[in-house]
């Protein structure tokens, strides 16, 4: 069922010689303490390593304990940590680095109790963001065979089974955001559901998975530009929702990035003979065609409000740029996109390295200029205006950017390796 090398690789950790000294891999779930100086890792990050490894090692250096990666003071179950640590695990798997894999496993051992209960998780909130660490649990279950991970995954699937939906079947983003679909949610829920359906033989799920992407495009795509609005409110009761269309006002780059990443990750598990697979491929191509049209012509990266580069206060934003680069290069590598996207992806990746990557004196790699967060509604209320999107804090090493950066880097590195064979 699990052909990946993680299973045997984790088994070899006991005898492997690690190049790094880490905090213990199996942190007790009750322990929230920051590691002491003696527990902190030391590592030399040299330029001869590939970018994916350099970023993964830099992450470990900045946050000696895995759950510290999202600027937080206690362990949290959230999509950002799932994204970053699954990305670290993928890099570790590809380069056969047991230290990276142990680091990713540390989060699973911290957040999943021996009973399979998920720490810091409430199913009844029906927060689709909380499904996103599911693929990491899938990897950990494949690697260890520990039943606690399967139990936790079944809990996430139970949430999806009961997730509130629009009248046409689209998932609400959260229970407290009624009748709303956000583009972000397509990445949060569907890659895990597709992988679970593939590996645990639930073929009936794929129609529903395809429908989520189709509905999102149908409700949120602007026919004039092909770009996708951030959110859609079926009830039209939110202040941010257009009274006619139900859509939010602007095209937020990262929202479209989430959607594009969700598509390429879902397609990994979508049966090739499924009648709706071609619909997803067409949506991916339409979406990225529109995205490339509004790319910054100089840096080949993207703006925070993606189609308004001339507006004062707008800025080139790293997290969305890494997401688009990842979606393009993976799409080409897997045959989801035409080969012409390889050059487009390379241009944008080079632009990311030039525009957003900073290497410190100790060799650690940083991703700059990431939007810390953006949403719609809530308290305080987020109205979806241009002024709102440019007002959110901008920071370095946002996990929503460093995860896709590792993934994009790894896709380029895989392609380079294949080209040499």
Task: Characterise the protein shown here.
With 421 residues, this protein is mainly alpha-helical. The protein contains 14 helices and six strands. Helix content is 47%, strand content 4%. The strands form three sheets. The chain has a two-stranded antiparallel sheet. Strands 3-4 form a two-stranded antiparallel sheet. The longest helix has 22 residues. The radius of gyration is 20 Å and the shape is globular. The N terminus is likely disordered. It comes from Neolewinella marina. InterPro entries: 6-hairpin_glycosidase_sf (IPR008928), 6hp_glycosidase-like_sf (IPR012341), Glyco_hydro_88 (IPR010905), PolySaccharide_Degr_Enz (IPR052043). This is Glycosyl hydrolase family 88. Keywords: Hydrolase, Signal.
The oligomeric state of the chains shown is single chain
Written as H for each helix and E for each strand, in order along the chain, the element string is HHHHHHEHHEHHHHEEEHEH
**Number of H- or I-type helical stretches:** 14
Task: Tell me the strand order in the biggest sheet.
Answer: 1-2
**For this structure, what is the CATH class of the largest domain?**
Mainly Alpha
Low-confidence stretches: 1-31, 33-40
What would you report as the Rg, rounded to the nearest angstrom? 20 Å
The second-level CATH architecture of the largest domain is Alpha/alpha barrel
Average pLDDT value? 91
InterPro entries: 6-hairpin_glycosidase_sf (IPR008928), 6hp_glycosidase-like_sf (IPR012341), Glyco_hydro_88 (IPR010905), PolySaccharide_Degr_Enz (IPR052043)
Organism: Neolewinella marina
Keywords: Hydrolase, Signal
GO biological process, one term: carbohydrate metabolic process
């Amino acid at each position: 069922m699990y052909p990946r090398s993680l299973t045997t690789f984790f088994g070899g950790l006991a005898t492997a010689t690690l190049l790094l000294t880490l905090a213990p891999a199996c942190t007790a779930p009750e322990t929230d303490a920051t590691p002491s100086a003696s527990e902190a890792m030391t590592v030399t990050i040299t330029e001869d390593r590939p970018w994916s490894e350099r970023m993964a090692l830099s992450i470990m250096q900045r946050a000696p304990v895995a759950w510290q990666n999202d600027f937080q003071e206690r362990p949290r179950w959230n999509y950002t940590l799932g994204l970053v640590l699954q990305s670290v695990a993928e890099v570790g798997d590809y380069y056969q680095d047991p230290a990276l894999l142990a680091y990713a496993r540390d989060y699973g051992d911290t957040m999943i109790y021996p009973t399979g209960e998920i720490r810091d998780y409430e199913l009844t909130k029906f927060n689709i963001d909380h499904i996103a660490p599911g693929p990491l649990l899938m990897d950990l279950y494949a690697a260890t065979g520990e039943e606690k991970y399967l139990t936790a995954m079944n809990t996430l699937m139970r949430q999806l089974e009961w997730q509130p939906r629009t009248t046409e079947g689209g998932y609400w983003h959260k229970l407290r955001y009624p009748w709303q679909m956000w583009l972000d949610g397509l990445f949060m829920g569907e890659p895990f559901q597709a992988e679970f359906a593939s590996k645990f033989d639930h073929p009936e799920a794929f129609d529903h998975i395809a429908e989520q992407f189709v509905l999102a495009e149908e409700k949120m795509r602007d026919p004039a530009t092909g770009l996708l609005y951030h959110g859609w409110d079926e009830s039209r009761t939110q202040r941010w929702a257009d009274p006619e269309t139900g859509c939010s006002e602007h095209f937020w780059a990262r929202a479209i990035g989430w959607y594009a990443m969700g598509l390429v990750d879902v397609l990994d598990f979508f049966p090739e003979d499924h009648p709706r697979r071609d619909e997803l491929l067409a949506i991916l191509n339409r979406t990225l065609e529109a995205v490339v049209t509004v790319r910054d012509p100089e840096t080949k990266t993207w703006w925070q409000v993606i189609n308004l580069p001339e507006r004062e206060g707008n800025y080139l934003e790293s997290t969305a740029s890494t997401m688009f680069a990842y979606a393009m290069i993976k799409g080409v590598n897997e045959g989801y996109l035409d080969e012409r996207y390889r050059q487009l992806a390379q241009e944008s990746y080079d632009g990311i390295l030039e525009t957003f990557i900073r290497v410190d004196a100790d060799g650690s790699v940083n991703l700059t200029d990431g939007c810390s967060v953006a949403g719609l509604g809530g308290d305080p209320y987020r109205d979806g205006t241009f002024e709102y999107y440019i007002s959110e804090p901008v920071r370095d090493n946002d996990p929503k950017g460093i995860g896709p950066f590792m993934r994009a880097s790894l896709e380029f590195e895989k392609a380079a390796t294949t080209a040499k064979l």
